[in-house]
Amino acid sequence: MRLRYLRRGTQGLGVLLAVFGVTGIGMTHLLFPGLHCYACPLAITVCPIGLMQNLIIAGTVPFYLVGAVATYGLALGRGWCGWFCPFGTVNDLLAFRKVRFRHALSPLKFLVLVGTGVAAWSLADTWFCKLCPAASLTASLPYLGLGVAQVNTPFLVHMGTLAGTLVGMALVSRFWCRYLCPMGAVLSVFNRVSLFGLRLRADRCGQCGLCVQACPMGIEPHRDINSPDCIKCGECVPVCKAGALSIGFSLPGVRGRVPLRAPGASARADRVPPHQ
After folding, report:
1. Distance between CA 237 and CA 198 in Å, rounded?
2. What is the pTM of this model?
3. What torsion, rounded to 10 degrees, do the Cα atoms 125, 127, 129, 132 define?
4. Which of 50, 91, 121, 156 fits a disulfide with 38 by CB distance 3.0 to 4.6 angstroms?
5. Residue 167 φ then ψ, to 5°
């Protein structure tokens, strides 16, 4: 329970840093490690996906973007999604139904990422930002409240994508994070090698499935430790009665962080047990 309260605290901090500008840092001085619209009138940070599109349009080599994202990725991987991202917090608030992860749909977020880059290069416009539901929530609605935005076609498009995404979140926990978030696609590349992650004592694991039931992403933490789709939220840790799972900082590849790759291989104490 203490772990959950700690995560709620960091999620609240992410919302404050993104929306209320408590640090006073200018909008272009910091890259936010989550999906939050850089056009938000109260934002203090730059959305990585928005910055990526603008750099592609300008034909600029994105040294700062790549360096910042790599730093975030090597530190926490998709842990940013589970512990910090404001739009991820919205996903959690609507996570009423924990359903199994559909691996066939997992590549969709990479298609969104690639499509975003291609659209920016070929159309010279930030088209993803015109459809992004996070932008709907953190830019379109605040601007409407401030009297800057008007209820026109672009605004209604944003409201449509936001409504569809919210319905998806209510029907499938972490729907946006699972299948559509391009920032999640980027950070998933670092999930296996990030310093922060889950660890498994396979000798203690009885494969009861309680961790699977608790996982908001609908994956099997004990069978595929720190998979690219794991947001490292730690919800699986306290429900494990055997104490087989833990979460924290450690070097990649150490005991308990190496997934079993061959389905028929024998399970070792530092590896994930195979399917029975």
Report:
1. 9
2. 0.88
3. 180
4. 50
5. -65, -45
Please name which of 84, 273, 90, 78 lies closest in space to residue 174, comparing C-alpha atoms.
90
Element (H, E) at 16: none
| pLDDT tens digits for range 72-89 | 999 999 999 999 999 999
Give pLDDT tens digits for 250-274.
Answer: 988 888 887 654 334 334 434 444 3
Query: 68: which 2 tokens?
Result: 């910042």
Instruction: Give the helix ranges, DSSP H, for 77-221.
Output: 79-83, 86-93, 108-123, 127-131, 133-135, 141-145, 153-171, 175-179, 182-188, 210-214
Q: Are strands 245-249 and 196-200 parallel, antiparallel or unpaired?
A: antiparallel
Write out the residue range of the structural domain in which residue 163 sits.
2-188
- What is the tens place of the pLDDT at every residue in 141-181? 999 998 988 999 999 999 999 999 999 999 999 999 999 99
Q: How confident is the model at residue 276 (pLDDT cuts 50, 70, 90)?
A: very low
- Please answer whether residues 221 and 259 qualify as being in contact, where contact means their C-beta atoms are separated by less than 8 angstroms: no
- Co-location of 37 and 115 in the same domain: yes
